[in-house]
Every structure is written in structure tokens, then in C-alpha cells.
Specification:
13% strand; five-stranded mixed beta sheet; 7 strands; Serine Threonine Protein Phosphatase 5, Tetratricopeptide repeat; 2 domains; 52% helix; alpha/beta; two-stranded antiparallel ribbon; Glutaredoxin
């Protein structure tokens, strides 16, 4: 797995230099192409199609242990909850290069409810030509690739929501263009959520280095930028727990769970403080 990981990192670096931005998602299919249905093993057993029978299918290729993948899964989980009751199906797809324990750890952290499918031998990866993680595809009811999106720090949910609505026929091409253009024109520095996520990523790095005080400071800055950011409250709890201030940490974990009841990291942190 170490060789495969190093190869993937090297390939990603080459592609970032050599490929134009629009080519990085799927090398072997383009928007409008008919996708062949595939049944893949489920993480918890059985076999499931990755497209299914919904009028819209959303599938994300992710990598365990990667911050962008974790962030994308959390945001997709929120979008799935928002669109509950509509004919939209979400699935997450992961290479079998990762162990089940590694995948389950990411699933718990992300709090996703969607099926997780395991791509044996990277067969689907190879068929579509997946190059970078995470990447999100959207197919229509006839299994044609309607759109794909790379990970982005800002407006990911807005862009995906607009594309799904277009597939469902809720908006036309003009409506889609109108929905996408303002989102793409937004500068990262103008969006407090972008700054909040930047602070969160810094805080997580500091937490890994056991620099708990600075991790807590980064979490507080993220909270100031976006008071509804559950992950920032979770990070604050983890930093406080690392300093042995469990009573304060539990307050933060409870606040995170109030904002996002499926925040697995907050639930684990609270459980750890209660031992």
C-alpha cells in the first residue's frame, strides 16, 4: 500500500503540472457520456450498484486519511440530508488499497449515511480514469455523466445543489448558469467559510503535533468566522481534551453534536472524556 500511495502522490503532482484543470477528474469519460453500471462490494457486505435507479446519482471517490476527502464527505452528507425525499442517490467509493478499518474510521469522522462501495483492484477507477481525490460525479437517470466537480473550499454545496437540480429538471440551463456564475466569482478571501476551513486545517495540523494551545486558538478563530461550523467546535474539544480540560471539552463536543448530530469525531471525543 505504501508503494501505491507514493505512486498516486507522484502521479498527482505530475498531473497538476501537465494537465489542464478541466481534465483532472475522469480521464476516460466526459460529460454526456453513457456510464456503464457496475456492482461493487459494500463496505458492510453484499453488492450494490454505484449508479442505481434514481433520477440523479451522486458518487464520490475519496481517500481515507485525506483532509479534503473528509471535508467533501461531510459536506455531501449535509447535502444528502437536505435533499432527503428527492430521487437522488448518494454513494461513496474507495479503493481496496485501504483497509476496512481505515475506511470505517473516515466514515465515522465524516458521519456519512450513504453506502460505501469498495472498488476491487481499482477496476472502476481505471475504467473512468480517476486521477485525483476527492472527485464527485453526477449522473442522470439514464446513467449519462451530467457533471463532475473537483474538491473546492468554497461553494461546493451550492454548485452540487445546482447541478443536481438541473439533472432533476428543477432548473434549465439558464438557471444553472445563473446559479453557478456567482458561486465561481466569489473570491476565497471574501467568504468567511473559506477562512474558517483554513483555520480548521491549520488547527488539525497543530493538534497532530500536540500543540494543543495553538490548535485551540485556531479553532476559536474558525468559530468566529463561522459560528455554525461544527468541526471547529469539535477541534476545540479535542484541543481541550489534549490539555486535560475534559469538562470544557465536553461542552465543545456537545455544541458540535448540536450543530451536526452525525459528527463522529465529536461523539468519540465526548466518549473518551467520559471514561
Amino acid at each position: 500500500m505504501g508503494v501505491k500511495f507514493r505512486s498516486a502522490v507522484l502521479l498527482g503532482a505530475v498531473l497538476l503540472v501537465a494537465w489542464p484543470p478541466g481534465s483532472l477528474a475522469f480521464a476516460n469519460v466526459k460529460e454526456g457520456d453513457l456510464l456503464e453500471e457496475e456492482e461493487l462490494p459494500g463496505l458492510e457486505g453484499g453488492r450494490l450498484p454505484y449508479l442505481g435507479r434514481g433520477r440523479a446519482s451522486v458518487f464520490v471517490f475519496f481517500r481515507p486519511g485525506q483532509d479534503h476527502s473528509l471535508d467533501a464527505l461531510r459536506r455531501l452528507a449535509a447535502l444528502e440530508r437536505e435533499l432527503a425525499g428527492r430521487p437522488v442517490r448518494f454513494v461513496a467509493i474507495v479503493s481496496d488499497a485501504w483497509t476496512s478499518d481505515e475506511v470505517r474510521a473516515t466514515v465515522r469522522q465524516a458521519g456519512i449515511r450513504m453506502p460505501v462501495l469498495v472498488d476491487r483492484g481499482d477496476a472502476l477507477y481505471g475504467k473512468l480514469g480517476v486521477r485525483l481525490h476527492p472527485v464527485i460525479g453526477i449522473a442522470d437517470g439514464q446513467h449519462r455523466l451530467a457533471a463532475y466537480e473537483h474538491f473546492r473550499q468554497i461553494n461546493l454545496e451550492e454548485i452540487l445543489r445546482a447541478r443536481i437540480r438541473r439533472v432533476l429538471g428543477e432548473i434549465d440551463d439558464a438557471g444553472l448558469a445563473k446559479a453557478l456564475e456567482p458561486a465561481r466569482a466569489t473570491m476565497p478571501g471574501d467568504d468567511p467559510r473559506f477562512v474558517a476551513r483554513r483555520e480548521l486545517n491549520l488547527g488539525r495540523l497543530l493538534l497532530e503535533r500536540r500543540n494543543f494551545e495553538k490548535a485551540l486558538a485556531a479553532a476559536r478563530k474558525a468559530q468566529e468566522r463561522d459560528p455554525t461550523f461544527a468541526a471547529a467546535r469539535t477541534l476545540a474539544g479535542q484541543a481541550l481534551a489534549g490539555m486535560g480540560r475534559c469538562a470544557e471539552a465536553v461542552v465543545e463536543f456537545d455544541a458540535a453534536l448540536a450543530l451536526d448530530p452525525r459528527d463522529g469525531a465529536a461523539a468519540e471525543g465526548k466518549k473518551g472524556c467520559s471514561r
